[in-house]
Design brief:
single chain, mainly alpha, two-stranded antiparallel sheet, 4 helices, elongated, DUF2231_TM
Length: about 140
């Protein structure tokens, strides 16, 4: 007869790391929504909002990147740690180029800034998915 242990779930990453990821993703999403607002209304203030939101997202994403680097240390490493770190690094790099695009004149940053914002949010979503996915512990013995 096979005995089974109840499946338990361990947190994939530290809660502060997940909090930083949520903050960065929210700020990047705010930048995307501001870009959409600028593309529809051509009010320059939307472009200013997007620039500040992206700059804040880069700071928070940088702190989350440091946490992801700590999660790569031996003994703390999970199966999702390396893809999460790589995706988070890609998010920061694309976000940095997005910030440079938004440093231009308001009209000159479109549509490239909007496209980079969409890519940044998509990368951030996938990186957050890898952080939130909990590994299973236990199972059939």
């Amino acid at each position: 007869m096979v005995s089974t242990a109840p499946r338990r779930y361990a947190p994939a990453f530290h809660p502060v790391h997940v909090l930083l990821l949520g903050g960065a993703l929210t700020l990047f999403l705010g930048g995307l929504l501001s870009d959409i607002g600028y593309a529809r209304t051509y009010e320059i203030q939307w472009q200013n909002f997007a620039s500040w939101l992206i700059a804040g997202a880069l700071v928070v994403n940088g702190a989350a990147l440091v946490c992801a680097l700590v999660a790569l240390l031996p003994g703390r490493r999970t199966a999702a740690a390396l893809p999460h770190f790589v995706l988070l690094l890609a998010t920061w790099i694309v976000g940095f180029f997005n910030a440079l695009m938004h440093a231009r004149d308001a009209w000159a940053s479109m549509p490239g800034g909007l496209v980079l914002s969409v890519i940044t949010v998509a990368l951030g979503l996938v990186a957050t998915f890898f952080a939130a996915r909990a590994p299973r512990i236990g199972g059939v013995e």
